[in-house]
Amino acid sequence: MAAATISIERSLDQVRAFIDPLLAESLHLSSEAAPRLLAAMRHSLLAPGKRLRPALVLWAAEAAAPEAADNHGPAAEAARRDRLWRAAAPAAVAVEMIHAYSLVHDDLPAMDDDDLRRGLPTCHRAFDEATAILCGDALQALAFETLAAGMPTAAAARGCLVLARAAGAEALVGGQTDDLAAERGWLEAQAPQTEATHIAWMERIHRRKTGALFHAALELGGLSVGASEDHLRRLAAYGGAFGLAFQIADDILDATGTEIAMGKKVGKDAGRGKLTFPTVLGMERSGHRASVLAAEAVAALAGMGDTAESLRHLACWIVARDH
Ligand code: GRG
């Protein structure tokens, strides 16, 4: 395995070691929360995901904090990182809650109808459909509670606005609706016809369905540590390119990856005749496009120094991964 791959996988391990206990803690609710609901929330939120969105929050905080990087050795560097990660932790937890809710709802029979997620039975399989719907609802509300209660007061309102926009009708939910519409032929009259309109159509869906939450993760990381508007703009540019690169890589893995490595069913897109980057562009051009986008993401961070190294490595890894 290449050194950069080993290093980003180690960095993601560090993120998981930091965030997983906080995710577990976030579900220490009072006895007013119904036990079955809470069990479903634990099943879905604590299942072993990659934790990419929390990583983006934490690494954006590290990259964009006005507090200068400490050059006084590894201990000082670790202390800086610890301070910044703690400041950004509520945002990292909140974003993962929105992501987990969206996966629970996406897996429902009315949507993607999946049995396997993160290597475990999907929420409605492990519990039942009604509990899975309620679990998603409760995770979504808890995300905003976590953000409002945990983010620095001066930034909390803007943080809630950023997350609400990313999760709403103009982003996550709107993108998901259009994705279903395309798959189910609800939009026959407007269906794209040429390669260019197919690509524009897919990019518009994925910018909202997948990209918006990545984008929000980066912005929330910056906001949590008082980043400048210039750094927030750079993080946003990184997020736009990263989100699309992630999606193209995800489409490629759906066609070439294994169920064991991915922890979910693969090959579903082709089975449904769904529009994906590989079906429109072919594998080779899709891979090329993903690499170009990853390079654009890296370029967006020019001038941000060594503290943005994890974000740079992640953009390269996201298009080279096998899971
Ligand atoms: C139901 C409102 C609503 C939205 C659903 C997230 C989503 C929108 C659909 C999931 C289906 C899917 C495969 C989307 C493509 C990209 C994606 C979000 C993959 C899963 O994200 P990872 O790979 O997952 O980061 P883990 O499990 O590692 O967190």
Which stretches of 5+ consecutive residues score pLDDT under 50? none
Distance between the termini: 14 Å
> What is the beta-strand fraction?
under 5%
**Helix/strand/pairing category:** mainly alpha
How many whole angstroms does the radius of gyration measure?
Answer: 19 Å
Helix percentage range: over 70%
Describe the structure.
- The protein is an all-alpha fold.
- The relative contact order is 0.13.
- The protein has helices spanning 3-26, 35-45, 52-64, 74-106, 123-126, 129-150, 153-167, 172-184, 195-224, 229-256, 259-262, 268-271, 277-281, 283-300, 309-318, and strands at 116-117, 120-121.
- The chain binds geranylgeranyl diphosphate.
- Geranylgeranyl diphosphate binds next to helix 4, helix 8 and helix 9.
